[in-house]
Specification:
Helices cover about 5% and strands about 30% of the residues. About 30% of the residues are buried. The protein contains one helix and seven strands. The protein binds FE2/S2 (inorganic) cluster (FES).
């Protein structure tokens, strides 16, 4: 059976290191945070405030808002719309998004 895990088709970008929940993630220059996490096997980015079920990236183009994470202490950041940069501190978003805060 074929491995269904996401994988990179192009490994040519310069490495960019950041942290997710204390784990070092090695991304590639030009990746979004969501892409880098998916390529590292990470799908759980927050919990549903309604059901508590795990949520993660879905559309990968900024429309579903399922990929909200906390980046450098700022909640409500869309992982799929945020480019990686060296040393980011990304965490699972805990609690509900707040209307009026940047996403
Ligand atoms: S995955 Fe849909 S907005 Fe990021």
């Amino acid at each position: 059976m074929t491995d269904p895990s996401p994988r990179r088709l192009d490994e040519s970008g310069a490495p960019v290191r950041f942290e997710f929940e204390g784990r070092e993630i090695v991304a590639r220059e030009g990746d979004s945070v969501a892409l880098a996490l998916a390529a590292s096997g990470i799908r759980h980015l927050r919990d549903s405030v309604v059901s508590g079920d795990p949520r993660g990236m879905y559309c990968m183009m900024g429309t579903c808002f399922d990929c909200l994470v906390e980046i450098d202490g700022q909640p409500n950041r869309q992982a799929c719309m945020t480019p990686v940069s060296e040393g980011l501190n990304v965490r699972i978003q805990r609690g509900a998004p707040v209307v009026g805060e940047s996403a």
